[in-house]
């Protein structure tokens, strides 16, 4: 069995990891850390885990104990902590960071967008970016994974086939994204109260969202420098990310050719699906699952391509993809623990 510990198990990504890993046939959950809730039963905070974790309690973070007892550690903390923790955990343990500390290759860009110093440049250099479908070979040999941001995962799965094929004007990309409130984490925040966010809808952080440099970095890997326009919005729902993306092709492309591109790219992928032409993605169809649903259209009037893409921010956008990466790192079947379908209604 693989011994797994979670640092920051009281948050949404930590609890989602537990929800998925209790059904992973190869995993034993070891140390599940918290600050204030240390010593308390996990099932009291997360009753959905009652029959799975029984009397298991949160524990205070003890690096030596974790090093001794774990094969894999997931770090589910606010940005800035994983740089220190990954150093302390050392190189003999596999680490998957769900935050952004190892995602941005250029430290000045990280510091500008995150307002935090990059204190682990040596670890940054060896970290592998964990968008599984595009970095599988590197992930196989990695010790440290930078798990992608949720909006980023959604946008990259939608856009990469087009950018990789050099079919679009790399400065024409407009990404209009919406996220459920769990994307903001479980910590108390007035903006996320039902009375503020319920029956409400708003854009936030236009022009400066932290995911802009991450999306540009990853799309630019294909060869051309990519500049995007990205605006996130807050949906009055718990989970889900929905992106509608507009791009200008370099030359006219038929919808049939466009569909073939996506079909070929994702034919072998367990979690990325091009929907039938008459369908449009919905957040509920992927709710609780590790799946990404994509639709592509060509507007015959304007010539633009429109891509619709949807994931569950806590699963493919965070904990599910982290487990997918763990499976790849350990040479396991990539889908282990991730067989859930979406939940409707
Ligand atoms: N929510 C999402 O959809 C996604 C989140 N992420 C990233 O994953 C990481 C975790 O996110 P999420 O689970 O949503 O966050 P939450 O706010 O839900 O949970 C944060 C966790 O971090 C702990 N924590 C908070 N501050 C500190 C601190 N100063 N020192 C030690 N522990 C601390 C909390 O523990 P305690 O109970 O002790 O306070 C809690 O367990 C973040 O980096 C986030 O950006 C990535 C993709 C998607
Ligand atoms: C709704 C909401 O607030 N969403 C978060 C994104 C969550 C995410 O992907 O996390 P990272 O911070 O690890 O990139 C935001 O916009 O900041």
UniProtKB/TrEMBL annotation:
Its main location: cytoplasm. It is found in: Cytoplasm. The lineage of its organism: Bacteria, Bacillati, Bacillota, Bacilli, Lactobacillales. Pfam families: Semialdhyde_dh, Semialdhyde_dhC_1. Pathway: Amino-acid biosynthesis; L-arginine biosynthesis; N(2)-acetyl-L-ornithine from L-glutamate: step 3/4. The keyword NADP applies. GO terms for molecular function: N-acetyl-gamma-glutamyl-phosphate reductase activity. This is N-acetyl-gamma-glutamyl-phosphate reductase. Its EC number is 1.2.1.38. It catalyses: N-acetyl-L-glutamate 5-semialdehyde + phosphate + NADP(+) = N-acetyl-L-glutamyl 5-phosphate + NADPH + H(+). It comes from Ruoffia tabacinasalis. Catalyzes the NADPH-dependent reduction of N-acetyl-5-glutamyl phosphate to yield N-acetyl-L-glutamate 5-semialdehyde. InterPro entries: AGPR, AGPR_dimerisation_dom, AGPR_type-1, NAD(P)-bd_dom_sf, Semialdehyde_DH_NAD-bd. Residues 3-142 form the Semialdehyde dehydrogenase NAD-binding domain. It comes from the Bacteria. CDD domains: AGPR_1_C, AGPR_1_N. Belongs to the NAGSA dehydrogenase family. Type 1 subfamily.
């Amino acid at each position: 069995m693989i011994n797994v510990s979670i640092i920051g198990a009281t948050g949404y990504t930590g609890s989602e990891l537990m929800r998925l890993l209790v059904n992973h046939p190869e995993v034993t959950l070891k140390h599940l850390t918290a600050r204030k809730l240390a010593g308390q039963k996990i099932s009291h905070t997360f009753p959905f885990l009652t029959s799975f974790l029984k009397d298991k309690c949160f524990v205070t973070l003890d690096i030596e104990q974790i090093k001794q007892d774990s094969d894999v550690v997931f770090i589910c903390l606010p940005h800035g902590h994983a740089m220190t923790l990954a150093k302390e955990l050392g190189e003999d343990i596999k680490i998957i960071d769900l935050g952004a500390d190892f995602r941005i290759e250029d430290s000045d860009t990280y510091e500008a967008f995150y307002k935090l110093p990059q204190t682990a440049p040596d670890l940054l250099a060896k970290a592998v970016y964990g968008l599984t479908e595009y970095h599988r070979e590197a992930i196989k040999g990695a010790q440290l994974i930078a798990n992608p941001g949720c909006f980023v995962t959604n946008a990259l799965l939608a856009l990469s086939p087009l950018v990789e094929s050099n079919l679009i004007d790399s400065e024409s990309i407009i990404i209009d994204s919406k996220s459920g409130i769990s994307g903001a984490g479980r910590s108390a925040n007035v903006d996320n109260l039902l009375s503020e966010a319920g029956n409400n809808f708003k854009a936030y952080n236009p022009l400066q969202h932290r995911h802009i440099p991450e999306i540009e970095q990853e799309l630019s890997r294909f060869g051309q420098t990519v500049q995007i326009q990205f605006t996130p919005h807050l949906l009055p729902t718990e989970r889900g990310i929905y992106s509608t993306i507009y791009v200008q092709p370099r030359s006219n492309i038929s919808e049939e050719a466009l569909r073939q591109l996506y079909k070929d790219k994702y034919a072998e992928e367990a979690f990325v699906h091009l929907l039938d032409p008459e369908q449009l993605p919905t957040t509920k169809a992927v709710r609780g699952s590790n799946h990404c649903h994509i639709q592509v259209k060509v507007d015959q009037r304007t010539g633009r391509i429109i891509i619709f893409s949807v994931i569950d921010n806590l699963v493919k956008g965070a904990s599910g993809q982290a487990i997918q990466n763990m499976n790849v790192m350990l040479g396991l079947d990539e889908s282990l623990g991730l067989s859930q379908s979406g939940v409707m209604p």
